[in-house]
């Protein structure tokens, strides 16, 4: 999902990140994943959205993590209190049995090095 151009943070600004931990009712995982993708544009079309990801835990049965990045906290909070967000939550609520939300500011990012070795073997040889 591409970021909306207006959503890019100002030069030097760090994104505001939201991480949801969702516990899904047993047997509803596949349907939850499908519905999450269907309603996801209500998040990603917001002008401050920088994208979102859905990840399924390998260690905990029925647990998912949703990460979303925002241009800043103020505009995330604007979205959080919007009617579209209420509808988004309403669509996903029947699948939930619990969960938590954690918010954070990204303080640093180390991206891939374009000059890094192409294979694991080459990388090991540089140590």
UniProtKB/TrEMBL annotation:
<protein>
    <submittedName>
        <fullName>Antibiotic biosynthesis monooxygenase family protein</fullName>
        <ecNumber>1.14.-.-</ecNumber>
    </submittedName>
</protein>
<keyword id="KW-0560">Oxidoreductase</keyword>
<dbReference type="GO" id="GO:0004497">
    <property type="term" value="F:monooxygenase activity"/>
</dbReference>
<dbReference type="InterPro" id="IPR007138">
    <property type="entry name" value="ABM_dom"/>
</dbReference>
<feature type="domain" description="ABM">
    <location>
        <begin position="16"/>
        <end position="104"/>
    </location>
</feature>
<dbReference type="Pfam" id="PF03992">
    <property type="entry name" value="ABM"/>
</dbReference>
<dbReference type="InterPro" id="IPR011008">
    <property type="entry name" value="Dimeric_a/b-barrel"/>
</dbReference>
<keyword id="KW-0503">Monooxygenase</keyword>
């Amino acid at each position: 999902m591409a970021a909306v151009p207006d959503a890019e943070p100002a030069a030097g600004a760090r994104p505001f990140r939201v991480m949801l931990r969702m516990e899904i009712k047993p047997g509803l995982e596949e349907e939850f994943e499908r519905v999450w993708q269907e309603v996801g544009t209500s998040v990603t079309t917001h002008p401050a959205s920088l994208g979102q990801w859905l990840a399924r835990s390998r260690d905990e049965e029925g647990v998912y993590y949703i990460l979303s990045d925002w241009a800043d906290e103020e505009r995330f909070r604007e979205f959080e209190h919007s009617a579209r967000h209420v509808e988004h939550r309403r669509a996903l609520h029947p699948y939930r049995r619990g969960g938590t939300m954690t918010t954070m500011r990204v303080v640093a990012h180390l991206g891939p090095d374009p000059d890094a070795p192409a294979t694991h073997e080459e990388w090991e040889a540089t140590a």
